[in-house]
Structure formats: C-alpha cells, structure tokens
Specification:
There is one protein chain. This protein has a single domain, classed as Gcn5-related N-acetyltransferase (GNAT) (Aminopeptidase), CATH 3.40.630. It has an eight-stranded mixed beta sheet, with helices on both faces. Helix content is about 30%, strand content about 25%. The protein is built from six helices and eight strands; from the N terminus they run E-E-H-H-H-E-E-E-H-E-H-E-E-H. It is globular. By secondary structure, it is α+β, with helices and mostly antiparallel strands. The structure holds coenzyme A. The site of coenzyme A (COA) has 21 residues, from helix 2, strand 5, helix 4, strand 6 and helix 5.
Length: about 200
C-alpha cells in the first residue's frame, strides 16, 4: 500500500506529561497487543459494545495498516518510546463523512488524551475532504459523550435506545474562539497540539 504518513504532533496531558500523537504503523502490531493488555473489559465494552472482542494477529495487522485517506488512526505515545497509550481512528463511510472511535488505556483516562486524538484526527480528516465525523456511543458512556460534547465541532446528539448518535461538523475551524469557554480550556494545549513534533 502506498501510504504517506502524516506528521506527529506533540501535546501535554492534564498531569503535565509530554506525549506524541503519531500515525499508527504496520510495525505497531506488538505495541497494539501490549496496549490491549492494559485496557479493562469495561473499556473494551464501551468501545466495542462487548467485552469479548478477541484481538487476533490478522485483526491487529488490519488495525495497524491504514491508508490515511479512507482509514486513519493516530496513537498517543510518550516521547521516548512507541508504547501506545491511546488510539483514535476514523473510517470513511461516505465521500465526506467518517465514523470515529477512541480508546485510551484505563490508567491514563481523564488526562485529555481522547480530546487530543479527536483534534488530530479532525485536522487530518479535513485534509482528506472529510467534513463530518459521526460516532455511536453507549448512552451510559459519559466520558466519551463529554469529549464529543465539549469539542468545538458543534456536536449534534440523537438518542435511540441505548445509543447516542453524534455528528460533528469539521468545517468549524478548531481554535481558541471556537472552544467552549465554560470548560476553561486554555488555547495553549491547542497550540501544542498543532506545533510539529
Ligand atoms: C472515552 C475515552 C476515549 C475518553 O478519553 P479520555 O482521554 O479519558 O478523555 P478526557 O481525559 O477528556 O476525559 C473525558 C471526561 O471523562 C472523565 N473521565 C475520563 N475517564 C473517566 C473514568 N474512567 N471514570 C470517570 N470519568 C472519567 C474525565 O474527567 C473527563 O471529564 P471532564 O472533562 O469533565 O473532566 C476514554 O475514557 C476511553 O478510552 N474509554 C473507554 C473506551 C470508550 O469508551 N471509547 C469510546 C467509544 S466511541
């Protein structure tokens, strides 16, 4: 597959740890298996709606091999290693829209990694002609709904049964003025996110 890997960005977690948001690579298969060992069944249930999704070698290769056009994935890693702490991915489902999903290892949830991955994915997706993200989230999944609701992308949420269907408008340019003031989000993390690593 002829792939142009997008650039890394740096960001700082809420506890002050510098991390990289880097494109996933085929060589990440062992890192993905190690990551899955650190993810709880409950987090897997929130991500896949079942705690039993087995990671086979074939699935791992599929998840790590993306074209960065119709399928893209970024991972959060420390500066000094390729350890995976979180993954955000999109899969294009119409010419201008893609479905997104995220997973962060349990010990690092609540550190702002999910929102950082969302912003990086959105930046990349816009460059690929995608102007809408969709997400299907269990209604009980308050952390994910918080990330999406607090995003600058004018979230629209529709509830059907146990699931929330969320649409994000990527044509809203992410910037300090667009960010919800109520959360007190400083513009600094965004600048960090958009400065090349
Ligand atoms: C949903 C998820 C990706 C969010 O990523 P994250 O890096 O934890 O995002 P944040 O750090 O911004 O946390 C989001 C909010 O949830 C809260 N939160 C995060 N983890 C939490 C936890 N385990 N328990 C309770 N609250 C939690 C945070 O405090 C934050 O709320 P705040 O902004 O009001 O403080 C991550 O929690 C996760 O991987 N969950 C399991 C998988 C999943 O649900 N995937 C979504 C499928 S689409």
């Amino acid at each position: 597959m002829d792939v142009t890997f997008p650039p890394e960005r740096r960001f700082t977690t809420r506890s002050g740890q510098a991390m990289r948001l880097r494109p996933i690579r085929p060589e990440d298969v062992p890192n993905l298996f190690a990551f899955r060992e650190r993810v709880s069944r409950e987090s897997l249930r929130m991500r896949y709606f079942t705690p039993r999704r087995r990671l086979t070698e074939e699935l791992a290769r599929h998840l790590c091999t993306v074209d960065f056009r119709d399928r893209a994935a970024f991972v959060a890693s420390p500066l000094e290693s390729d350890t995976i702490h979180g993954i955000g991915r999109y899969e294009r489902d119409t010419p201008r829209s893609a479905e997104v999903a995220f997973i962060v290892e349990d010990a690092l949830q609540g550190q702002g990694i999910g929102p950082a991955l969302l912003e990086r994915l959105a930046e990349h997706a816009r460059g690929q002609g995608i102007d809408r993200f969709t997400a299907v989230v269990l209604c009980e999944n308050t952390p994910m709904l918080t990330v999406l609701r607090n995003s600058p992308f004018r979230p629209q949420v529709t509830v059907e049964g146990d699931c929330a269907f969320v649409k994000l408008d990527l044509t809203v340019l992410a910037g300090p003025a667009a960010r919800p003031a109520a959360r007190g989000l400083a513009s600094a993390p965004l600048r960090r996110l958009t400065s090349p690593a």
